[in-house]
Structures are given as C-alpha cells and as structure tokens.
Design brief:
The complex is a heterodimer.
Chain A: E1 3-5, E2 10-14, E3 19-21, E4 24-26, E5 32-39, E6 46-52, E7 59-61, E8 64-69, E9 74-79, E10 88-96, E11 106-108, E12 112-117
Parallel strand pairs in A: 2-12
Antiparallel strand pairs in A: 1-4, 3-9, 5-6, 5-10, 7-8, 8-9, 10-11, 10-12
Chain B: E1 4-7, E2 10-13, E3 19-25, E4 32-38, E5 44-51, E6 57-58, E7 67-73, E8 76-81, E9 90-98, E10 103-106, E11 110-114
Parallel strand pairs in B: 2-11
Antiparallel strand pairs in B: 1-3, 3-8, 4-5, 4-9, 5-6, 7-8, 9-10, 9-11
Chain lengths: 118, 115
C-alpha cells in the first residue's frame, strides 16, 4: 500500500523567510512518480512539480526547490524568500506506474497549510 | 496546457434531490478521469476512477448507487450525487489523465452544499 506523510499540519512564517515543507512516502514499487500541488483558498489545485523515481537530481524553479532523497523516501519542498501569495495548502502526492487498474492513481498526503505573514 | 473544467462551480440543493457535476477535458482526450472528494481542511480522497466506455471503479467505502459516474465520451465524465444529504456537502474535484505524460490535470472543483 502507498502512503504519503506530511507531518507539518500548519506552518507560519514571516514574509521573506525560507520555509521547507516535508514529505515522506512509502511504496513497494521501484518505479513511481512524486508530485507537489498547491491549493490556494480558491480551491483549485495547481501543479508544481513531478519527479520520477529514477531521477534524484534536485530541482530549482525560481524561488521553489525540491530535494528528493530516495534513501530516506523523502521529497521536501523549499520556498525561499517567501511571499504572501505563497499562502496556501501544499499537497505532496505519489503515483505508481503500474497500479493494478493501470490507472496511475494518486495518493495524497494530508497537506501542509502555509501562512506567510506580511 | 491541458485544461479541465467543472460545472457547476458551486451548487446548493435541498436534501433528497440529485445533483449532477460535469468534468470536461477541454483540449485533450482522456480515457481516464478521476473523482475526488475533499472535506474542509482535509486531503483529497479518491472516490472513483472513471474509464471511458466502461463502468467506473469505486474505492472502498464509496457507494456506487449514491455516486453515479458516467464517462460517455473521451472529454466528459459526470458525477451524480443521488438523494443528497447534508453529509454529502463537500468539495468535489475531478481530474483527467493525459495518457502521453501520465499526468493528471485537475478541474477547479465543485462546492456542494446540501441543506
């Protein structure tokens, strides 16, 4: 069974601070995808990144960076110089590539609510 | 990019009525669509996987007679909440899978309130 754990339920930071959102996953599969999504108050899920299990290179996109550590089954997300617009709920998710239904289902973590205070 | 729409975005209905929510992939064909439910301050829970031209696959604990799913075309899946009750009030989100990239694209969600 797959599982995604986001231990931080809520985080508050002051604007311009850096913040790291943790994500730990469990899967028996050797091939899988990891995702991060942002859900602002409007409710719509915004795709941030997808990483496959073969690619452990860290990725940077503007103020966002992701650290994938297969050895610790973690896929952490860091926002540098946080801004008020970053305030949202962030979800980490896992998808195997060979589910029984062949449908690449996503398993979501419970989410971390980030509040950036001006 | 791949766009998924949902209609309506918000619906309020009386207890006992049925509500239909549409999920459309606007610029791509999707053989597989997914329906999720999200209670306030909680995560997304997969309800069912909808496959074009065949019966939906429901997750454990989801009543298939209450949540009717129809995926009649490659761009449209519908979720009908039958005989809605206040406990069905929730945020319903659909996604459509773009086969080429093994990626799900999410709709904006439908907020259902049952009075």
């Amino acid at each position: 069974a797959q599982k995604v754990t986001q231990a931080q339920t809520e985080i508050s930071v002051v604007e311009k601070e850096d913040v790291t959102l943790d994500c730990v996953y469990e899967t028996r599969d050797t091939t899988y995808y990891l995702f991060w999504y942002k859900q602002p108050p409007s409710g719509e899920l915004v795709f941030l990144i997808r990483r496959n299990s073969f690619d452990e290179q860290n990725e940077i996109s503007g103020r966002y960076s992701w650290n994938f550590q297969k050895s610790t089954s973690s896929f952490n997300f860091t926002i540098t110089a946080s801004q008020v617009v970053d305030s949202a709920v962030y979800f980490c998710a896992l998808s195997d590539l060979f589910s029984g239904a062949g449908s690449y289902q996503l398993t979501f973590g419970k989410g971390t609510k980030l509040s950036v205070i001006p | 990019g791949a766009v998924v729409s949902q209609h309506p975005s918000r619906v309020i209905c009386k207890s006992g009525t049925s509500v239909k929510i549409e999920c459309r992939s606007l610029d791509f064909q999707a053989t597989t669509m997914f329906w999720y439910r999200q209670f306030p301050k909680q995560s997304l829970m997969l309800m069912a996987t909808s496959n074009e031209g065949s019966k939906a696959t429901y997750e454990q604990g989801v009543e298939k007679d209450k949540f009717l799913i129809n995926h009649a075309s490659l761009t449209l899946s519908t979720l009908t909440v039958t005989s809605a009750h206040p406990e069905d009030s929730s945020f319903y989100i659909c996604s459509a899978r773009l086969d080429l990239y093994n990626e799900q694209f999410f709709g904006p969600g439908t907020r259902l309130t049952v009075l």
